[in-house]
Specification:
Blueprint lengths: L6 E2 L4 E6 L20 E8 L14 E5 L2 E2 L2 E8 L9 E2 L5 H10 L16 H4 L3 E8 L5 H17 L5 E8 L3 E8 L2 H8 L15 H11 L6 H9 L5 H13 L7 E7 L10 H13 L2 E7 L21 H4 L1 H24 L11 H10 L2 E7 L10 E8 L5 E3 L3 E3 L9 H13 L10 E4 L2 E4 L2 E11 L11 E11 L5 E12 L9 E11 L2 E11 L5 E10 L8 E2 L3 E8 L9 E2 L2 E5 L4 E2 L4 E9 L3 E2 L3 E2 L1 E9 L2 E5 L3 E3 L9 E9 L6 E11 L4 E3 L2 E6 L1
Parallel strand pairs: 8-9, 8-11, 11-12, 29-39
Antiparallel strand pairs: 1-22, 2-22, 3-13, 3-15, 4-5, 4-14, 6-13, 7-10, 9-10, 14-16, 17-19, 18-19, 19-22, 20-21, 20-23, 23-24, 25-30, 26-28, 26-30, 27-28, 30-36, 31-32, 33-34, 33-35, 33-37, 37-38, 37-39
């Protein structure tokens, strides 16, 4: 990569945008303490034959953190007895739905003081397994939902004992607890019966009843502005479900013993708008709370058919015969399972993919939680620097093998800091593997070709106005933005830094608006990543967002098309003259959430490069937009034909469509951009998803 191909844009745009708005036997009964300052480590000790070793004491272990010896303050040996125990219910998940919402929206008023967790009685938890059955209905097709529920019912009826405390929850647009922890089979079955075939919403049907449901949802009056904005930020990514996993884990943190989440999912396909920090935060929360995640891909064993199976149209073109089509199908399947595998591997669980037998997952959870030691210590390192702390647990007897988690990430706080320290804290968040996500942030990047090996990449970072705390007496609201773009080697190739200042009185109109920072840079083709950190400077509330940026090598593609930018607002130009989004003194402002209101206009902008010229007639590029609701085409624009090259220096033919959003019913749509170079016979069909409310 040539360093001279990278140039950072120094000018920036700050705007307020109006946009419509996750065996106790002879041994002493263990007492589990609610102590959030303790670091707990569950340890399984086996001999050379692989058998569980019992009868050890804290003196038989040595525990170190980053090489420094730690004092074991709590020590418990937990073994699950299958002997009959009294059926009981425990309320441990009360209020988790509200926690997800608070973590997403961060309402402007200061949050209430945390309530100290109530210590659980040993007779309620000793000798029991704590298992959450979490169904991700937003990612599962109806038949997969039914198969997951049926397997859970079979487990409850055949294998669940009074030693199992089971909770049932779902996550879609919200996290919902259907049943808190209970050992009563009837209560768990009753909760499972609330789920059925119709709960799967992977592909919403484009029927009139669906449209009516969407209209009713759009007209719901109980939905607050903050909730709407939060939902828009997460509509096209996995952040909500990852935040749900994190919240469930944090709710169980006061309970020291080992817990498990059986996560039924149809896969987590990366949309390009996912926040990588949320994944690490979910994993870290589970690790610190002694929660192991066991994801189950409910799609089961899937056949990859060269010509396509009965669920989709047959393949077309050479890809069907060259093997490229098969490779693409395998890549899509693998990508949808990668996150599930990461959740399992990093939390001590196991992912179950490509299997139609979900019973193996239940058996594995029971086996992993059958017998273990729980060691607790108070770290001698009290610095809240957010760094990874490595834990080493060793049995003094060399004949024994110890299985324990590798470490955890320390807390990070925003204390009373000087101006110099604040810049350091911002940089530390940028460098941290698990950054703070208390302030909702979304970042986006597109690409437009300037030359064969040079692309202009507009970058936008947005924060919902309702998430910014309003403090009385402030003369102005300021937000610090720090972002870095790195290449495939992790080396920085660009840096963005700006302090956004909103004048006094702005706080009264922030609700319902997006605070947008826009900049850009010049990059060569390649794979990059952006990580942005935003801090509100009155309270120190911070958020972060990390996502990949793929700048393709258009030179190798038959028909060369830029990114498609969706905008709902234009303003007088203040950016660079070579910014393709600036034309005729007007600048398009990208809509990062892809959520539009019916009273807005949608602008679709894209460019086509190096079109084939026809002798005496110039180029002949034809394009139109087709809009789909599910798999049904609901609207298509007339075909537009261009015979001129608009920007000769870039050999670019420009297209912009203006579509009133009011012509669509409320709901989710896919826009397919049809582009045909009539002279060469080449074509392209890029797509984007948006939501009308």
């Amino acid at each position: 990569m040539k360093s001279q191909g990278i140039r950072v844009l120094t000018a920036a745009i700050i705007a307020l945008l109006f946009l419509p708005e996750a065996q106790p036997g002879a041994q002493q009964a263990p007492v589990f303490r609610a102590n959030l300052s303790m670091v707990s480590v569950d340890v399984v000790v086996r001999d050379r034959s692989g058998n569980i070793v019992r009868g050890l004491t804290e003196k038989d272990f040595e525990i170190r953190e980053d090489g420094r010896p730690q004092q074991v303050r709590t020590f418990i040996f937990q073994e699950i007895s299958e002997a009959a125990l009294a059926a009981t219910s425990v309320d441990l998940l009360a209020g988790v739905e509200e926690k997800v919402l608070q973590a997403t929206t961060q309402a402007a008023t200061p949050p209430p003081a945390p309530v100290a967790p109530t210590p659980m009685r040993s007779e309620e938890l000793a000798g029991r397994r704590l298992v959450i059955l979490l169904f991700d209905t937003s990612s599962m097709a109806p038949e997969d939902t039914q198969r997951a529920v049926d397997s859970a019912r079979e487990f409850v009826s055949k294998d669940m004992t009074t030693a199992d405390l089971v909770a049932v929850a779902t996550v879609s647009s919200l996290l919902t607890v259907l049943r808190d922890f209970t050992a009563d089979k009837a209560q768990v079955t009753e909760a499972l019966n609330l789920l059925a075939y119709s709960e799967g919403t992977e592909e919403p049907p484009p029927s009139a009843s669906t449209a009516a449901t969407d209209d009713a949802a759009a007209a719901a009056t109980e939905e607050t502005v903050a909730e709407v904005e939060a939902a828009e930020l997460e509509m096209f990514n996995n952040d909500l479900r990852l935040r749900a996993l994190r919240t469930l884990a944090e709710s169980l943190a006061p309970i020291e013993q080992k817990k498990a989440i059986l996560y039924f999912s149809g896969g987590m396909t990366r949309s390009g708008q996912d926040n990588q920090v949320e994944l690490r935060s979910a994993i870290n929360a589970a690790v610190r709370s002694n929660v192991s995640i066991y994801p189950i891909d409910t799609r089961g064993l899937q056949a990859v058919v060269p010509g396509g199976d009965a669920r989709q149209a047959s393949g077309r073109g050479q890809a069907m015969f060259s093997g490229r089509g098969m490779a693409q199908q395998f890549a899509r399947l693998s990508a949808s399972q990668d996150t599930l595998v990461s959740l399992a591997a990093d939390t001590g669980g196991r992912a179950f993919t490509d299997s139609n037998n979900f019973g193996e997952a239940f058996a594995r959870v029971r086996r992993d939680m059958s017998a273990y030691y729980l060691l607790g210590y108070s770290s001698t390192n009290t610095t809240k620097d957010g760094r990874f702390r490595r834990i080493q647990v060793r049995a003094l007897n060399p004949e024994y093998r110890v299985d324990a988690r590798a470490g955890y990430y320390a807390d990070r706080d925003f204390a009373h800091t000087s101006k110099g320290d604040r810049e350091t804290l911002l940089q530390e968040q940028l460098n941290a593997a698990v950054s703070i996500t208390d302030l909702p942030v979304i970042a986006s990047a597109s690409y437009f070709r300037l030359a064969a090996d040079k692309y202009f990449v507009p970058v936008a970072v947005s924060v919902p106005g309702s998430a910014v705390p309003v403090t009385d007496g402030l003369k102005e609201i300021t937000l610090d933005v720090l972002a870095v773009i790195t290449d495939e080697r992790g080396m920085p190739v660009g840096r963005l830094r700006q302090t956004m200042k909103l004048p006094a009185g702005t706080e009264k109109t922030l609700a319902g608006k997006q605070i947008l920072y826009q900049s850009g840079m010049t990059l060569p083709p390649g794979r990059f990543a952006i990580k942005a950190v935003v801090r509100e400077n009155a309270t120190g509330l911070m958020g972060s967002f990390e996502a990949p940026i793929n700048v393709p090598q258009l030179q190798a593609q038959p028909l060369k098309v830029s990114s498609v930018v969706l905008s709902t607002q234009v303003q007088p130009a203040t950016g660079r003259s070579d910014n393709p989004l600036v034309r005729d003194g007007v600048q398009m402002i990208p809509n990062l959430t892809h959520v539009v209101s019916k009273d807005q206009k949608m602008f679709f902008y894209y460019e086509v490069y190096d079109s084939t010229a026809v002798a005496g007639r110039g180029v002949d590029v034809r394009t139109s937009l087709a809009f789909y609701r599910g798999k049904v085409k609901v609207q298509e624009t007339p075909v537009v034909t261009r015979s001129v090259v608009d920007v000769a220096s870039r050999q670019a033919t420009l297209f912009q469509f203006e579509i009133p959003a009011g012509t669509f019913e409320s709901g989710l749509y896919t826009c397919q951009i049809n582009v045909i170079d009539e002279a060469s016979g080449q074509f392209a069909f890029p797509r984007m998803t948006f939501y009308v409310r």
